[in-house]
Amino acid sequence: MTASLIFRAYRGGGLNRPPFLFFAIMTEDSELLHHTGLDARIAAIVMPTLVDMGYELVRVAVLGRERPTVQIMADRADGAMITVEDCEAISRAVGAVLDVSDPIPGEWTLEVSSAGIDRPLTRVKDWNRYVGHRARVEMNIPVDGRKRISGVLLGADATNARIRMDEGGDIEMPIADIRRAKLVLTDELIAATAASAKPAN
């Protein structure tokens, strides 16, 4: 998989404690399609701020217990490639909002990243945007006896996503039953991403 741009900030412990900031590369593969529980609560808290700043929320995931990591994946709403400066701006704004709302007791780490080229498919628009490209899907509930499905994207609606399987035949998967879905990095995907990307201002 390709690495995604990521900005990390240690936070928590009160508003007067400044975060310690540094840059890293995200290599974990833990994309969840649906937000539930604490993930959903944090998504609801941060989404208005992201929208106001001109970004789209792709995914929220809270990982770990002792010092949890809040992972926020975002896109630029204008279609431009997300930059280090974008990630830093999101981190500072979202971190301040979460400090005030305080959904996580104690100290925690905030990671803000781009979706990357081989991005998770977390929204219907993602499935339709990347029609013709390859993806891997993991189901919570098997479809036709399969929990892991790979093939070419055929699109999605609000209820179902569709793939032309590597072994042949088309399959329709209930979106509510998808655990995770992710694009497969291919030369075609890299070329299409480069062609469609707009330079950030």
Structural write-up:
Helices cover 25% and strands 39% of the residues. The protein has 2 domains: 111 residues, RimP-like superfamily, N-terminal (GMP Synthetase, Chain A, domain 3, 2-Layer Sandwich), CATH 3.30.300.70; 61 residues, SH3 type barrels (Roll), CATH 2.30.30.180. Helix 1 crosses helix 2. It has 4 helices and 10 strands, in the order E-E-H-E-E-H-E-H-E-E-E-E-E-H. By secondary structure, it is α+β, with helices and mostly antiparallel strands. The protein has a 5-stranded mixed β-sheet with strand order 2-1-5-4-3, with helices on one face.
Number of domains: 2
Number of helices: 4
- Average pLDDT, rounded to a whole number, is 82
Name of the CATH first level of the largest domain: Alpha Beta
Number of E-type strands:
10
Please give the CATH architecture of the largest domain: 2-Layer Sandwich
Largest sheet: 5 strands, mixed
- Going by CATH, the homologous superfamily of the largest domain would be RimP-like superfamily, N-terminal
How far apart the termini lie comes to: 27 Å
Q: Specify the oligomeric state.
A: single chain
- Strand percentage, roughly? 35-45%
Helix content range of the residues, please? 25-40%
pLDDT under 50 segments (min length 5)?
13-33
Tell me the Rg in angstroms: 17 Å
Q: Given the C-alpha coordinates, what overall shape results?
A: globular
Looking across the biggest beta sheet, what order are the strands in?
2-1-5-4-3
Structural class by sheet pairing and helices: alpha+beta
Element pattern in H and E: EEHEEHEHEEEEEH
CATH topology of the largest domain: GMP Synthetase, Chain A, domain 3
